[in-house]
Write a structure and sequence with these properties.
With 160 residues, this protein is of the alpha/beta class. 21% of the residues lie in helices and 14% in strands. It has a single domain, classed as Lysozyme-like. The chain has a 5-stranded mixed β-sheet, with helices on one face. The chain starts with 13 loop residues before the first strand and ends with a helix.
Length: 160
């Protein structure tokens, strides 16, 4: 397999939480997502980290490289993907395991220490402002990803 050379990120301002949009019975990881992303014409996986159903943390893209996970914000963010996030009819569902959420909490704490001042957001929180009022409201989300309210979760689960 050829080595992929990726552009290095100059700033890290965001930690973006995603879901794989798979149902709870699908335990996939970096290998499968890399295959999906390559099929879309990307050089490799777009996420920096993947958290499997059992809480195992897998490394995707090199952490210092620009990701391919959220349009308009790849150059200053790190992408973290939780496996799951939809039901068997592909509707958004917060079906993440406790082990996944514990790993997420730990990883976010480590990354915030490594990159002080970063803001944690869900993919859906970076949707454009459709009505021009400066607020992102639920009816403006183009995506449900990561299928839960990251701000509410953070209020209960401080990383670290």
């Amino acid at each position: 397999m050829a080595t992929v050379t990726l552009t290095r990120r100059k700033h890290t301002r965001l930690l973006v939480v995603h879901c794989s949009a798979t149902h709870s019975g699908q335990d996939i990881g970096v290998q499968e997502i890399t295959r999906w992303h390559r099929a879309r014409g990307w050089s490799t996986i777009g996420y920096h980290y993947v958290i499997r159903r059992n809480g195992t943390l897998e490394t995707g893209r090199d952490e210092a490289s620009i990701g391919a996970h959220v349009a308009g914000h790849n150059s200053d963010s790190i992408g973290i993907c939780l496996i799951g996030g939809v039901d068997t009819q592909s509707q958004a569902q917060n079906n993440f395991t406790n082990a996944q959420l514990e790993t997420l909490q730990h990883l976010l704490g480590l990354l915030q220490k490594r990159y002080p001042g970063t803001r944690i957001v869900g993919h859906r929180n970076l949707s454009p402002d459709r009505n021009g009022d400066g607020r992102i409201t639920p009816n403006e989300w183009f995506k449900a990803c990561p299928s839960f309210d990251i701000d509410a979760w953070l209020a209960l689960n401080s990383p670290g």
